Amino acid sequence: MTLFTTDALEGRCLPLFINNEFVPSQGQSFPSYDPATGAEWSSMPDATADEVDRAVRAARGAMTSAAWRDMSQTDRGSLMYRLADLISQNVDRLSRLEVRDNGKLLKEMTALTHAVAASMRYFAGMADKIEGTTIPVNKPDMLNFTLREPVGVIAAIVPWNSPLLLLNRAFSPAIAAGNAMVVKPSEHSAASILAFAELVAEAGFPPGVFNVVTGGGQTVGDALVRHPEVDKIDFTGGPETGRVIAASAAQNLTPAILELGGKSPNIICADADLDRAVTGVVSGIFAAGGQTCVAGSRCLVHDSIYDEVAERLVARAAEIRIGAPTEADTQLGPLALWSQVEKVGRFVEGAKTAGAKLLAGGGRAEQMGAGWYVQPTIFGDVTNEMDIARNEIFGPVLGLIRYSDDEDMIAKANDTRYGLASGLWTNDMERAMRFMRRINAGMVWINTYRSPSVMAPSGGYKDSGYGKHNGFAAINEFTRIKTVVIDYSGKTHDPFVMRVQS
Length: 502
Prior knowledge:
The chain has 502 residues and is α/β, with parallel strands linked by helices. It is 39% helix and 20% strand. It has a 7-stranded mixed β-sheet with strand order 14-15-16-13-12-18-19, with helices on both faces. A hairpin with a 6-residue loop joins strand 5 and strand 6. The mean pLDDT is 96. InterPro entries: Ald_DH/histidinol_DH (IPR016161), Ald_DH_C (IPR016163), Ald_DH_CS_CYS (IPR016160), Ald_DH_CS_GLU (IPR029510), Ald_DH_N (IPR016162), Aldehyde_DH_dom (IPR015590).
């Protein structure tokens, strides 16, 4: 019987996963809390530097072992298909582990776990379709072509809000390309990733291909990103931590993919379908409790419809059902961390002091007892100069910002250090096309929001980071290009003159 169920883990300390084995850590443990109740439910270790080194060396061993290095691309894809089937068979168990760790809705975690399996199948099919190119150089006796090869050992640092989904953005393209991985889950939500590791072993992946070390960012995370045997880093989190990781990685010239959050504009034009637009704004900020990197936390509204939009949003916020995340009719569950509850409170008080008008919410949902629940909150009369409009909150807090015309709208939308996502609600396709070109964001949604696809590249500009997940762009991130030149002329050439090809 699997160890990794919510009942089996109650009161227990999680292990590490190294070289296809679950091993106890020698490090100190720290508690993991259930956000719905605020009570401790399990614990996890803060792995030692030696254990991080063992995990990285296990991954390096996989890269040099015939079992993984010489496995055909088609067989790699078959392993991934097998793992995807195992995930599909264990959706409920994996989803409940995530809910227990981060408090997000069971129905959303269930949908996301199904999406993990579907995404894995997408990349499994891509495993034997990773191609190089033949280059038509101007010398008829030379053959010039490229190979795409795996990068090597990938260190993935995964946040707490959607562990499996965000892990898989790195896992599936990296494994399809033939890399090996060491993963550090968030110290707040590791259970589902260790359950995933169990399925990796069951699917038949060779030892060392996938490893999990748990612990804090300043201990385990730092040891991982500084390790000289790590070939690439994949990190999702805040820009402050992203800068630290980039600086540490630079010591070994280790490249990185960094997705660092956002302060995304969700814009309603005067000609928009307001029913759809208001629903899109609600989805963009209150779904998942606003705990998503692409949260549309700045709602820009044209002056002529501002009052009506504000009234509609306040009415919708009042209807949102707050409840236990496992209940089918719950629409807003707890925040994942008590520190997030405190952070939201500071932003709310700061917005009031700055002159924003509190239209809805603004406090804890006291009816939920000791759980970490926050009311859906809306502020009006927000300006881009306020902290509530400039910094990522990662909670269910929306700021309404007025704009007068399209130029004002673009200027205000781009007036942010972030550039991850954006949304525009309009029936004017000419306006939509202009917006698409001028917005400084890596993702643009028109008349929809929070609508990602595994087939479409995602990633941000500016302080939202660099690098891409999803689509074939992700394969490019986890492969490196090797150029091969073959001279089949049979001639000996002047050794003091370069045979320049152009």
